[in-house]
Amino acid sequence: MAAGYLQEVLKFFARLLTKPTAREDRFGRAFTRVWDGYLNRLCSKVEDNRKDRLFTKTDLVAVNFNTYLEIVNNRPGTGFTRSEKTMSSPSKTILQIDASARKSGSVTRELSGKLVERLQHRYPEAKVVSRDISQGLPFLDEDWIGASFTDPEQRSETQRKTLALSDTLVAELKAADTIVIGTPIYNFSIPAALKAWVDLIARARETFKYTEDGPVGLLEDKKAYVIVASGGTKVGSDIDYAATYLKHVLGFVGITDVSFIAADQLMVDPSRRDAALTRTLEIAA
Which has the higher per-residue pLDDT, 47 or 232? Predict the structure, then answer.
């Protein structure tokens, strides 16, 4: 059967790309990106209505070449099979961040809550850390800047206290395997509280570093879901300075696997809320 041939081809390229230099040269990096997309498209053609199916359509959202390497390298002879024990869980620790000023009636709180519930159902042992930042976080000031740029070993007790909250937020982000951010769009951008959170976690030597080739994010191998709600701003449009900013800043600290769920233009079309809820339930089913 074609599936058997396909399995052998996949194993061949898995072995090829596990060579030490495979991901270090330009070809290796380019090939990996192409392979990730190809593997997802290829698997999406697999029927999922059989009892012994390989991957469900929902699983395919998260499948990439790295996952397949784990299957091949860690489970010899397993081949291209689906197993909760075999696949690495992207949700060992879930960090949920709510930024909406509304406690009740908030679309982003509702959708992020549903998403986290689904992730917990899929990964029962997952730990959830909730961080409600809607009441505001301190803005950066001269004391904070001075403490941040002081060598950790040279910081005074006062400087350590100044950075205490930032250290806590950074630790939460580092420990998380999956991040769920729920945010409305206020005046074309994110709430001030969420911007303050970004300022507190974007720390040189902690979440990113500078190199000769430019800044490099240090928070790799994480999955982020960003749920965005708006009254009139279309997510991804020229006047959206919320989703585009969050995508950039998450990538800046190394979180490049980001999925957006848009419940946008709700004042124009309230039914978009239901569509967003459907996508939320599907994305982590």
Answer: 232
Q: Mind listing the domains of the chain with CATH numbers?
A: 2-74 (no CATH), 93-283 (3.40.50.360)
What digits encode the pLDDT tens for the residues 7-18? 554 454 455 444
Choose among 132, 124, 115: nearest CA to 224: 115
Q: Give the chain's end-to-end CA distance (angstroms, integer).
A: 30
CA distance 78 to 14: 13
- The rounded distance, in Å, linking the Cα atoms of 108 and 130 is 14
Decide the pairing of beta strands 93-98 and 127-132: parallel
Query: Cβ distance 71 to 11 under 8 Å?
Result: no
Alpha helices (H) along the chain: 2-17, 26-43, 59-62, 65-74, 107-122, 142-148, 157-162, 164-175, 192-201, 243-252, 272-283
Phi, psi of 61 (to 5 degrees): -60, -35
pLDDT in tens, 210-222: 999 999 999 999 9
SS3 216: strand
Which pTM was predicted? 0.68
Tell me what the mean pLDDT of segment 203-215 comes to: 96
CA pair distance 246, 35, nearest whole angstrom: 26
User: Which residues sit opposite 263 in a β-bridge?
Assistant: 229
Residue 195: exposed, middle, or buried by beta-carbon count in 10 A (0-12, 13-18, 19+)?
middle
C-alpha span between 60 and 40 (Å, rounded): 6
